Amino acid sequence: MRLSIKRVYAPPEEGDGFRVLIDRLWPRGLAKEKAGVDLWLRDIAPSTALRQWFGHDPARWETFRERYLEELRQGEAAAALETLRAEVAARPVLTLLYSAHDEAHNNAVALRDMLQGGG
After folding, report:
1. How far apart are CA 34 and CA 26, in angstroms?
2. How many domains does the chain fold into?
3. Could you say which of 5, 19, 67, 90 has the lowest number of CB atoms within 10 Å?
4. pLDDT tens readout for residues 28-68
5. Whole-angstrom Cα distance, residue 25 to residue 86?
């Protein structure tokens, strides 16, 4: 199984495999036909309050990761995480899609690391 991450604005590629959007909001200005999203898991995204607090500030990254992983253990986020884990187990290639500009500090990085055993 290969798990990767990619900005949703990048064109879909055959090597992406099953593509899962993990943002709460649909990416601004992107037509659904061009996105190539196979599954949209809104509930796996960080809460609005956490996302706004983080503001993609690298100085808040570690705290954001910890709080986000805690959110994933509760309520609808936990159910969405189980859905994602089932998809990961069922697919040879899965790509997590995100819309943030910062490629190193975003929920897809935190989620990928957790799914691969790093968090």
Report:
1. 13
2. 1
3. 90
4. 999 998 999 999 999 999 999 999 999 999 999 999 999 99
5. 23
